[in-house]
Amino acid sequence: MARKFIVGGNWKCNGTTEEVKKIVTLLNEAEVPSEDVVEVVVSPPFVFLPVVKSLLRSDFHVAAQNCWVRKGGAFTGEVSAEMLVNLSIPWVILGHSERRAILNESNDFVGDKVAYALSQGLKVIACIGETLEQRESGSTVAVVAAQTKAIADKISNWDNVVLAYEPVWAIGTGKVATPAQAQEVHFELRKWLKDNVGAEVAASTRIMYGGSVNGANCKELASQADVDGFLVGGASLKPEFIDIIKSATVKKNA
Ligand SMILES: O=C(CO)COP(=O)(O)O
User: For the segment 119-154, what is each residue's pLDDT rounded down to a tens digit?
Assistant: First the structure.
C-alpha cells in the first residue's frame, strides 16, 4: 500500500507572535507538491496553535507538541486531548525524546498517552529513538522495539499513528544519520511491526525520520525505501523547510 510522504515541522519551544506569523506567511506563499503527494503538519507551541490554525493555508495541518495522558481535570499546567479536539487540532506529537529525557516520560507513559489521544480522535506522531550510548552498545533495535511495543500493547488500531524515528544523538546536533543508518532502523521497525502487529500495519504505517534534517540532506534520506517522511526541528523554522517538503517528489518519481 502506498504510504503518503509526511513532513512535520516541530517548532519546539520557539517563537514570538511576530515570528510565528512570519513562518506562516512563508509557508502560505510556498509552492509545494499537492496534498496527494505530501502531507504537511506544523507544530507550534500550544499558545500559538489558534493563531497558526487560523492563518495557515488549508492544505497544511497543525499538531500540538504534547497532551495530557488522560481526561483533563485537576492537572495544573497540562493541556488535554479533549481541548485539542475542541480547537479542531487534528494532530499531536507524543513521546518526543526531549520529553522522555528531560521530563522523564517512560515508555509506558508514552504508550498510555498515545492510546488516550487516539481514543479522543487525534492523529498521533509517536517519537522513538536511541541515545548515542545505546547505539554504541549495539542496542538501537532493542531500544526502539521496546518503545514501539509500549505503544503497540496499548492500541488496537494503527490507522492514525505515524512513527517518528529520531535518534537522540542526531537531534539538534547537526549530526544527521546517514541514509543507510536511517534505512536500517526503519527497516527493522517495519519488520518488528510485521512480526508483532501484522503485515498490513507494517506495510501501511508511515515512519518519519527526524534529527538534523535540512534542505541539503533531505533528498537522499527521502530516497530510502522505508523513510516515509521527516520530522524537522531547527530547519522547520527556516525557508529550507520548503525544500524539505519538496523532497517528497523523490518518492513520487522513484
Ligand atoms: O527533534 C527533532 C524533531 O522533532 C529534530 O530536531 P532537529 O531537526 O533540530 O535536529
Answer: 999 999 999 999 999 999 999 999 999 999 999 999
Specify the pLDDT at position 137: 97
ipTM here = 0.99
Q: Is 130 a catalytic residue?
A: no
Domains of the chain as residue ranges with CATH: 5-252 (3.20.20.70)
Positions of the chain with pLDDT under 50: none
199: nearest Cα among 1, 16, 57, 37: 1
Ligand 1 centroid to Cα of residue 74, in Å, is 32
- Please choose from 232, 236, 244 the residue to mutate so as to test ligand 1's pocket, defined by most ligand atoms within 8 A of CB: 232
Q: What lines the ligand 1 site, CB under 6 Å?
A: 10, 96, 166, 171-172, 210-213, 231-235
Q: pTM of this prediction?
A: 0.98
pLDDT for 69 equals 98
